[in-house]
Amino acid sequence: xxxxxxxxxxxxxxxxxxxxxxxxxxxxxxxxxxxxxxxxxxxxxxxxxxxxxxxxxxxxxxxxxxxxxxxxxxxxxxxxxxxxxxxxxxxxxxxxxxxxxxxxxxxxxxxxxxxxxxxxxxxxxxxxxxxxxxxxxxxxxxxxxxxxxxxxxxxxxxxxxxxxxxxxxxxxxxxxxxxxxxxxxxxxxxxxxxxxxxxxxxxxxxxxxxxxxxxxxxxxxxxxxxxxxxxxxxxxxxxxxxxxxxxxxxxxxxxxxxxxxxxxxxxxxxxxxxxxxxx
Length: 279
Ligand SMILES: NC(=O)c1ccc[n+]([C@@H]2O[C@H](COP(=O)([O-])OP(=O)(O)OC[C@H]3O[C@@H](n4cnc5c(N)ncnc54)[C@H](OP(=O)(O)O)[C@@H]3O)[C@@H](O)[C@H]2O)c1
Hints:
Strand order of the largest sheet: 3-2-1-4-5-6-7
Oligomer: single chain
Shape: globular
Order of helices and strands: EHEHEHEHEHEHHEHHH
Number of domains: 1
CATH topology: Rossmann fold
Strand content: 5-15%
Number of strands: 7
Largest sheet: 7 strands, parallel
Bound molecules: NADP nicotinamide-adenine-dinucleotide phosphate
CATH superfamily: NAD(P)-binding Rossmann-like Domain
CATH architecture: 3-Layer(aba) Sandwich
């Protein structure tokens, strides 16, 4: 028996990467009802089929939704209310990044990122909290990032959305102290998923290529997170090298970080001049 045996869970971004892994590991821990969402219906359906192949007694609902669309999000919440579904566990995992300078970003993509990484996560937390507080227990895992712990040039907006997630989760956790509802912020460093491919812009030389020694396997990220969630821990940074790097970065005075990051500014200047040259 695990803490999560017989509980229900909602996992966003379940069609790939960490979300799919959360679904797999929650099922293995004995969750009895899973609601899985993302945009890609085929991926959700094949995950459902493979989970049911292993855990035939598991109840799984797949609800394809574009979380960047406020109307679709309202309908998604409405569908869960109509079905009388109120999760014991909320994994707010859906999200994406956009790698490149802010001045060359696409405004529509930036707005979509704000909507998924911040707005949807906040609305789903607010919605799920009502039922959790009524029952006096619940677990919320908000997927932030180490990119939200220090400002990262060329990931300016993405990092800021994750800073929101990290900060929101820490504050909410304190508000909910002794309520029976636990909030955990997951702050992963690099994990091999589709994240890099989605974040890298087409026709851009800048690609998401983190050093291999910092990468943690998605199965380890999720296992460490679910253990931390069950224990009611506030924050998880999977992987020793990433944890150590973040400890160093978070305790470094901001002016030193600026100095280090300014060493990269030549690249940004060159990119700007090249872009201006093309106009
Ligand atoms: N991988 C890393 O290195 C890393 C590091 C730090 C933090 N993170 C965070 O971890 C979380 C999971 O990312 P991942 O690494 O597993 O990346 P991934 O493999 O690209 O998965 C992202 C998931 O989010 C869903 N999603 C994206 N846009 C959506 C939208 N508009 N509506 C609904 N769902 C949407 C995707 O589903 P559809 O495309 O089917 O909609 C997919 O299931 C994200 O919040 C990411 O920021 C990742």
